[in-house]
Amino acid sequence: MFAVLARRLKRLSPRRRLQLGLAGVLVLVLLFAFLFIRTAAVDIDAQSSVTLNLRELQKMDAEWDTAILRAHVGPRSSNRALTAPLPRMRELMERLHDALPMNRGPAAGAAYDRLALAFKYKEQLVDAFGRRNQPLRSALLYLPPAVASLKTELAGIGGALAPARIVLRLDASLNDLLSQILRYNLSPSDKLAARIRDTLGDIEAQEIAFSPAIVEAIDAIARQSRIILVNRPLENALETSIAATNTGEAMDELGRQFDRAFDGVLLERQRYRGWLVAYSAVLLALLAWAGQRLRRSYRIIGEVNQRLVAANENLEHRVAERTAELQAQSEQLELLAQHDGLTGLVNMRQLTRLMEHALVRSSRRGTVVVVMFIDLDGFKAVNDTWGHATGDVVLQEVARRVQARLRAEDALARLGGDEFVILLEEVGSADGALRVAQAALDAIRSVDQANGHPVVISASIGIASVRGREGLTHDPEQLLAAADKAMYQAKQAGKGVFVISREAEWAPS
Ligand SMILES: Nc1nc2c(ncn2[C@@H]2O[C@H](COP(=O)(O)OP(=O)(O)OP(=O)(O)O)[C@@H](O)[C@H]2O)c(=O)[nH]1
User: Residue 207: its pLDDT value, please?
Assistant: First the structure.
């Protein structure tokens, strides 16, 4: 699969590959961020806060129950003890409500709703309980001392005015009432209530025999007794209902739901941690693979680079060789361009250049430049008799022998065919020039055989010269033309001689 992927990637343009690479890196980073956030997404503080709130609520609820019990059985009533915890409990309920989103699913919400309903109901019941408890506590506190006080009164002046039988009966009824009320307070029942009512009726029936003060005391005792009769069972019923609200169980359920949610989050975090470890391992493997590819690429680049350097050195070597060859060829061409191929003498082009330089030098130094135009005599006959090859040998031999008679600084050129030119510089006198002409003539005449064939040749030589500044007024063509003209005169004079141009100039003797 990797190979197929790599092949497909290779087919893409570099720009597209770069875009894909960047997108890949982005996906890897996002995936890493997602996994990391999932593993870190456990707010331990929030969880602790929920647990603490719930515990505090449970504690306050238990204390509330204790306060209710105290109000129920205790001697005094305290409505404040029943209502004081309510604001804090409401606040805790609010906090738990705010923490509900930490749960997933509807179970925690339902448990919270049940608890809220139970609390609301319990609050109403406690409110009603408080309203009943107040007069009941007062009556219960009132009754024993009131009965004792009345009894004392009956034993004193208040009883002295009434018949002793009635006083005794009222005293006994009061004793019954007190014990019945106390029993009723502990365990109310309809039967006991009926007996208390009977006792009360009996007591009230005897009022007529007593003073108004005693009547008033009896009425007050009867009133308080009836309050106890009415409120005791109601209060008991309210307390039973309060106990039945079962807020404790509702809180336990809500606590279980929160614990389950927290456990779920913890499990999820462990699962994502596992994913994160696996992801990191894959990422490391990818990085190792990329590193290996990179190393391989560098190695290939290094090898290619070495080969390029070697090829470059080879190329430089070949270029140097080729340049040297071209240089040699160029020099050869230059040589060919300046020399006559048959005799190796300088040609017309080079002769012209040599003459230009010689004329400049003579004008500067005031010396004489001499040009001798040589045309062979009888050469055609050699060609015609012995062939062109033999004619060539004659030309080469003429060149060699004339050259041998000249100074190193003198020049001998072949213009073509059987025409040669001698260039002399710094010629002291006309005699000197004539000696050279004679030597050349002798050298040419000395060629008497070629290729084993007998040959007879001579030469007609025309001599021209120019001196000092005059040289500047002459160019090579003029000087050569003057020599050529003189050579023509030599031909006309019968060949085998040399003629000096009439314009020739010589150094003053
Ligand atoms: N072998 C040979 N012959 C050449 C060459 N160049 C020219 N020739 C021949 O040289 C001869 C020159 O002719 P001419 O100068 O009239 O011959 P000549 O017998 O010396 O006659 P004059 O100059 O009138 O005395 C011709 O036959 C040309 O064909 C060459 O390079 N080699």
Answer: 87
CA–CA–CA angle 86, 94, 118 (5° rounding): 60
CA dist., res. 395 & res. 83, Å (int)? 151
| Full-model pTM | 0.48
Assigned CATH for 348-500 = 3.30.70.270
3-class DSSP string for 50-93: HHHHHHHHHHHHHHHHHHHHHHHHCCCCCHHHHHCCHHHHHHHH
| 455 in Cβ contact with 391 (< 8 Å) | no
**Cα-to-centroid distance, 396 and ligand 1 (Å):** 14
Ligand 1 midpoint to CA 379 (Å):
5
Residue with tokens 């609820």: 61
Which mutation among 374, 383, 455 tests ligand 1's pocket best, with the greatest number of atoms within 8 A of CB?
383
Q: Convert the pLDDT of each residue in 155-199 to its tens digit.
A: 888 778 888 899 999 999 999 999 999 999 989 999 999 999 999
Q: Are 418 and 376 in contact (CB under 8 A)?
A: yes
* pLDDT more than 70, % of the chain: 97
Q: Which parts of 74-163 fold into alpha helices (H)?
A: 79-83, 86-98, 107-155, 157-160
Ligand 1 binding residues, C-beta < 6 A: 342, 375-381, 383, 388, 391-392, 395, 417-418, 495
ipTM of the complex: 0.96
